From TrEMBL:
Keyword Flavoprotein attached: yes
Domain NADH:flavin oxidoreductase/NADH oxidase N-terminal, residue spans: 5-322
GO MF annotations in UniProt: FMN binding; oxidoreductase activity
Entry keywords, A to Z: Flavoprotein, Oxidoreductase
Protein's UniProt name: 2,4-dienoyl-CoA reductase-like NADH-dependent reductase (Old Yellow Enzyme family)
Top-rank taxon: Bacteria
Source organism of the structure: Taibaiella chishuiensis
Amino acid sequence: MSVSDLFKPLTMLHGPAMSNRFMLAPLTSQQSEYDGTASEYDQFWMKQLAQSGYGLIQTSAATVEAGGIAFERQLGIHSDAQLPGLTEMARVVREGGALSAVQLHHAGHRAKPAIGGIPAPASGKTLPGVEAITTEEVERIRDSFIAAARRAQAAGFDGVSVHGAFGWILSEFLSPNLNDRKDKYGGNLENRSRFTLEVIEGIRKTCGPDFQIGWRLSVERYGLRLEELRELTADIFDRELIDYLDLALWDSAQVVREGSFAGKTMLSVFTGIPRKGVRLGVAGKIMTARRAAELLDEGCDFVLIARAGILQRDFPLQVQQNPLYESPKLPVTAAYLREGGLSERFIETMRGWQTFVVPGSK
């Protein structure tokens, strides 16, 4: 396929179509207020993105419970008091012509007590002195995901993306290393995936047929098993439980090193699954127009832009204007990011990413 194919519309099982194949990945910016309400910096960021040519824009990870917080100044969607700011974000994105989604997040055992987090481990062995959450607590958090999706819908978002990656709570429950439960949420794959499936099915039941549901999945670290995740994904595709899979890889070109899929690209393990009407996209070092187009050839329906979107807010427009476009090389100076419109809060967050900001730059 050519770069021009990236600008073809993409229909979804539910709700409206994406106008093109560019989705903004959920980027943690840590620029909200301390209570999780959207700040003026969040709003300015959304205004920039809304004019940047994306087909769908995801918010940063938003807490479904106050105790599920992982980052200082993390966006929240756990309270009706947060609705005005979220409503403004959805409005701006809609007026810019893109679809919108809130990424729903709970940190699980990685919640940080220093900023109000309440660790919620699947197992009593994960954190010293912290008991596994009870069955009733799992069900409460499940219902919090569903309630947050309902808030997103009330705020005017086209959908939500359920964060099931990076060892956060849903990913944690999928891992046989982090989940040794004896109740209905632990044991075999069916039980360990029950939490994820109940969240997704509950959102669909509550929000209806016109609301879009995405699912972010990672396959590395935390004891996750690639073969099991492929099996679960195949079931979700077959039952068309989601509108799109957001496959979060460190590198979209990475190769499986061991197991039954050794030697294959991680992406091919998932693009080879019959997906019916579900759409599949990937994130991971997509820094050039050429690489984005190649991923359509490799079986993706869309691409998720992350770092490239921080470096150049209007990455899709740059690609449209120049089929040979390449992102600026990392690291960049803080001044470069500031000139591009990043807030000081966001820049400080990016200083914590290895090789992103030149050390000591102002």
